[in-house]
């Protein structure tokens, strides 16, 4: 099965004036598409035999060869990156709940966390990413990685389960900001999708689980159900694929809620 370029849940102009339309278009349809093409080509070659049938998460977690780190990482990182942004007014402007508490415990305040994140993004020499994520001990940490490396990869300086990342490759900002990377980093916070960051923390990283990387367009109805096995209330989406499909006969106490969801998220 080949990897595909995921759709973005908003228009290319939705992040104006902070991220410009042309950059979004080129970044998604050219740069991200190239990573998808390249990792598919690598896996189809003799060198990629061991990766056949693996999920993009499995590819990233086992990536040691440069072509896999660069292109598998490029696909995984960007698929997350699009979900970490949204139009102004479409999300909470600060983290909430357990993540808010965790940030205050580990950094002192949200402002302090942002300062450390900005410093990591600004000081990353050349191309790379800045990350906020969860360490093995459950605490939050900030790091940066070169190129398309992800904190889930072997051999990184600070292993993390990422819940927020910022692309600081020049292709992410140069058309609008030229060499003013700090200005781009500051502008990012205006479109940061804190609701998504909270979701990734609550549902995945805080439980020691990285994101699988199954992104779907969620403009459909969904079910809120009690899991037959655990009794936990949680959303179950009816348009996921493969093993993510949850059939009604596998659940009990289901209430169907018809709602338009302009969102993208991994299947539960």
From TrEMBL:
<dbReference type="Pfam" id="PF02777">
    <property type="entry name" value="Sod_Fe_C"/>
</dbReference>
<comment type="similarity">
    <text>Belongs to the iron/manganese superoxide dismutase family.</text>
</comment>
<keyword id="KW-0560">Oxidoreductase</keyword>
<feature type="domain" description="Manganese/iron superoxide dismutase C-terminal">
    <location>
        <begin position="95"/>
        <end position="198"/>
    </location>
</feature>
<feature type="domain" description="Manganese/iron superoxide dismutase N-terminal">
    <location>
        <begin position="2"/>
        <end position="85"/>
    </location>
</feature>
<keyword id="KW-0479">Metal-binding</keyword>
<dbReference type="InterPro" id="IPR036314">
    <property type="entry name" value="SOD_C_sf"/>
</dbReference>
<dbReference type="InterPro" id="IPR019832">
    <property type="entry name" value="Mn/Fe_SOD_C"/>
</dbReference>
<dbReference type="GO" id="GO:0004784">
    <property type="term" value="F:superoxide dismutase activity"/>
</dbReference>
<dbReference type="InterPro" id="IPR019831">
    <property type="entry name" value="Mn/Fe_SOD_N"/>
</dbReference>
<dbReference type="GO" id="GO:0005737">
    <property type="term" value="C:cytoplasm"/>
</dbReference>
<keyword id="KW-0408">Iron</keyword>
<dbReference type="Pfam" id="PF00081">
    <property type="entry name" value="Sod_Fe_N"/>
</dbReference>
<dbReference type="InterPro" id="IPR019833">
    <property type="entry name" value="Mn/Fe_SOD_BS"/>
</dbReference>
<protein>
    <recommendedName>
        <fullName>Superoxide dismutase [Fe]</fullName>
        <ecNumber>1.15.1.1</ecNumber>
    </recommendedName>
</protein>
<dbReference type="GO" id="GO:0046872">
    <property type="term" value="F:metal ion binding"/>
</dbReference>
<dbReference type="InterPro" id="IPR001189">
    <property type="entry name" value="Mn/Fe_SOD"/>
</dbReference>
<dbReference type="InterPro" id="IPR036324">
    <property type="entry name" value="Mn/Fe_SOD_N_sf"/>
</dbReference>
């Amino acid at each position: 099965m080949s990897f595909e370029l995921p759709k973005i849940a908003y228009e290319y102009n939705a992040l104006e004036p902070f991220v410009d339309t042309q950059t979004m278009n080129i970044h998604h349809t050219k740069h991200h598409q190239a990573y998808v093409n390249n990792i598919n080509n690598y896996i189809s070659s003799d060198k990629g035999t061991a990766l056949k049938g693996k999920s993009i998460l499995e590819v990233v977690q086992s990536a040691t060869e440069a072509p896999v780190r660069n292109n598998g990482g490029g696909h995984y990182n960007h698929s997350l990156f699009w979900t970490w942004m949204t139009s102004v007014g479409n999300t909470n402007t600060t983290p909430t709940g357990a993540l808010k508490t965790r940030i205050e415990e580990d950094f002192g305040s949200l402002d302090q966390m942002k300062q450390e994140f900005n410093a990591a993004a600004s000081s990353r020499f050349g191309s790379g990413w800045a990350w906020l994520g969860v360490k093995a001990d459950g605490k939050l940490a900030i790091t940066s990685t070169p190129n398309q490396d992800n904190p889930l990869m072997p051999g990184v300086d600070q292993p993390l389960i990422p819940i927020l990342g910022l692309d600081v490759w020049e292709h992410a900002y140069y058309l609008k900001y030229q060499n003013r990377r700090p200005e781009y980093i500051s502008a990012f916070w205006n479109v940061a999708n804190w609701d998504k960051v909270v979701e990734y923390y609550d549902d995945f990283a805080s439980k020691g689980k990285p994101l699988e990387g199954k992104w779907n367009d969620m403009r459909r109805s969904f079910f809120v159900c009690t899991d037959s096995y655990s009794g936990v209330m949680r959303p179950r989406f009816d348009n996921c694929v493969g093993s993510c499909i949850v059939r009604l006969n596998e659940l009990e106490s289901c209430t169907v809620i018809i709602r338009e969801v302009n969102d993208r998220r991994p299947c539960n």
